[in-house]
Amino acid sequence: MRLVDYNEKLRLFTLSNNSFGYAIYLNDAGYLETVYFGRAMRDYSDFACVREAGEYASPRYNIRTAREEGYRDGFKADAAPLEVSPHGTWDKRGAPIILRGARGGFETDFRYESHRIYAGLPVEEGMPHAHGAGAETLELTLRERTYNVLLRLNLSVFSDKNILIKNFALENAGGAAVKIVRAMSMQLDLPSADYDLVHFCGRWAKERDWCENPVHDGVQEVSSNLGRSSAEENPFVILKARGADETQGEAIGLNLIYSGNFKFRAFVGAYRGLHITYGMNDEDFEWTLAPGERFAAPQAVVAYSAEGLGGMSAAMHRFVRENLVTYGGSRADRPILFNSWEGCYFSFDTARILTYIDESVRIGTQLFVLDDGWFGARDDDTRGLGDWRVNLKKIDLHKVMAHCKEMGIRFGIWFEPEMVNFDSDLFRAHPEYALGMNAGRQELSLMRHQLHLDFACAAAVENIYAQMKAFLSEYPVDYIKWDYNRTVAEHLSGSLPPERQGEVYHRLVLGYYTLLGRLTAEFPHTMFEGCSSGGGRFDLGTLYYCPQIWCSDESDPAQRMDIQFNTSYGYPLSAIGSHVNDSKVAPYRTKAALALFGTYGYEMNPELLTEEEVHTLAAAAELYQKYHLSVIEEGTLYRLCAPHSGNYMCMQCVSQDRSASLVIFMNKLKEGDRFRFIRLRGLDGEKRYRNDFDGQTHTGEYYMRVGLNFSREWLGEFDCRLVLLTEEVL
Ligand code: GLA
Q1: Angstrom distance (rounded) from CA 449 to CA 383
Q2: What is the 3 state secondary structure string of 376-399?
């Protein structure tokens, strides 16, 4: 069967692979009715009549003929599951797109005009987007009934993944400008509301808490209006069918390839169906689309699984690794990173950094990163942002880089390109580059003593680009940590006229992508890591450019285990920057075990490590070198015990050839002697594996049926076991 198909006789579009199917009926009036989204079926032809059940159809008055008319095929205009609900008609569930044209009204009514099916995925210039082989796309073109505006609805499906990509793009084919006042990426109508909604909310140092609520009547919303995808709410959400769990039942994961304001809205109305719209937040949004212009909403990613949350996550993980990240460097190249921040903060000089480098090499460091404090007058966080010139009085970077080379390791550095301190040369020379400065306000909100640069203003972006390019030309670093340490408060841009102020939020994100896109293209061998006060911009938009993102400023395992575990629902471990720091709650052995379930690194004063600690960390580094790529990066993750539903956190990764597996088991509160058998997953039942916990060898079947035996032990608070299983080849 083809991945995408159109049965003209039945007026039925289908997108289907071995895992799931999606069917759309083109009705008589030109609306696209979503008739199926679920497990793959052999034959979809019966769906054309699903919607014919029942007799009632919505009436309409035809002004031209002055007569009442029904729809010939029984369309129920306020209730039928649709791909694009109109606005200002019978349908009041919430349209994904709303336009205002010359007449001033809000009515927006798109009807089918044509379609095409092609191999590959749509490319949205200037926006991060899905890519890669094995996909087919259905592009449906609709036209607004009053304004000459075209809507392209793109749906793409992969041959080998249970992932659906959706987005809308608008084109003004008329002679007059229109305003877009809502531009979501997708609509999804499901005929049942029997789901639980899982979202990941939090705050600084407590990102992505597990929040689960039943889908209920009326409206539920998960959103950010903070200018970034945010620590407060992550754009990744899950619809979990009632009764589904980690290993069984239907789970639908949704995410946006976007880093700014978003809104996931679920509405359950009178007919009990679930109506979802998802995309850029429409709060304070308004976009002028001039004749001939195009506006593309970010792509939405929908993962479908009939095998529970685990299957859904596995699809998202493979999608991110194979169809999203564009970093040119080799996937095998995930160096062990030492970051200077928590070890010395702003107080360092060349001698200290050289000592750090020497010490850090002893624990396996392959990439040394100098964090905040190396530029301008940046001796604390009140000044210097925006002045990306090396503070030569403080640090001799040439010497530092030469030393790294001598030691056989690479070098990276910290930037925060979208920000400015008012105490900086950049602000003194160009106060107009700060967001809100030219807007006639008396005061502006400060966060961490800094203002947000107006990245809607091309000159501001160009200024930072020129500074970064000059730096990179003189100091060809291997890595850049790209930070973003405040949210957007006043969103007034001096660079845009009054009628375009509704474009600011989105233009800030486009400015971020422009700069990051340009630099990653010009310096393809420099690895960029995302960061935003820890994990405040952990999203698919950033991952397109950055293969990994600093997950949280909280590295204490007591909190960190939840943060990393929960992040794994939507994002692969290979994207999760995780470091061992010197928090005192747990020993280095525990902190290293947890950091190994991500991209491993360090953040501490290495001079304070005891010989025993150096030994522990060097051993963890060796394990990382040996198993990270095959087991963590390219392996399959199994979540065995969720910390939000019990005393344990347990994750397991298995290499694709099922020859090796790593298991991390942690408990929260201390616990006495009891039975604790942790049943593993994903092993080859017939193979024999030796585990390095009790040194025993068992079959894969034994580990999966009986389990790893952690019984009869007293566990202290945040105690941890890291177990390596390796196939025993006789
Ligand atoms: C943010 C980051 C930290 C560090 C500091 C530097 O908080 O999350 O890792 O880089 O900024 O100021």
Answers
A1: 8
A2: CCCCCCCECCCCCCECCCCCCHHH
Structure token digits, residue 218: 């009326």
Q: Does residue 260 have its Cβ closer than 6 Å to ligand 1?
A: no
What residues have CB less than 8 Å from 650, skipping those under 6 apart? 639, 640, 641, 663, 664, 665, 666, 678
Tokens describing residue 348 = 């360092």
Residues 122, 223 share a domain: yes
The full DSSP string for 597-648 is SSEEEEES-GGG--HHHHHHHHHHHHHHHHHIIIIIISSEEEEEE-GGGSSE
Q: What is the pLDDT of residues 150-206, one digit of tens each?
A: 999 999 999 999 999 999 999 999 999 999 999 999 999 999 999 999 999 999 999
User: Is there a domain that residue 57 lies in?
Assistant: yes
* Domain edge (last residue) among 323, 352, 374: 323
Domain finish residue from 323, 358, 385: 323
Question: How many domains are there within the chain?
Answer: 3
User: What backbone phi and psi angles, to 5 degrees, belong to 457?
Assistant: -95, 115
pLDDT band (50, 70, 90) for residue 519? very high
Kindly tell me the sign of the dihedral angle through the C-alpha atoms of 86, 92, 95, 99. positive
- Alpha carbon nearest to ligand 1 atom 6, residue: 372
Cα–ligand 1 centroid distance for 534 (angstroms)? 7
**C-beta 417 within 6 A of ligand 1:** no
| Residue 669 and residue 607 in one domain | no
- Sheet strands (E) in 159-194: 163-172, 178-190
Cβ atoms of residues 560 and 594 within 8 Å: yes
Tens digits of residue pLDDT in 17-36: 999 999 999 998 999 999 99
Domain co-membership, 618 together with 668? no
For the CA of 553, the nearest atom of ligand 1 = 8
DSSP-based three-state secondary structure for 539? coil
- What tokens were used for 634? 């390219």
State the residue range of the domain holding 660. Answer: 639-727
The answer to whether residues 101 and 170 belong to one domain is yes
Does ligand 1 lie within 6 Å of residue 553's CB atom? yes
328 within domain boundaries: no
Q: Are residues 151 and 171 in the same domain?
A: yes
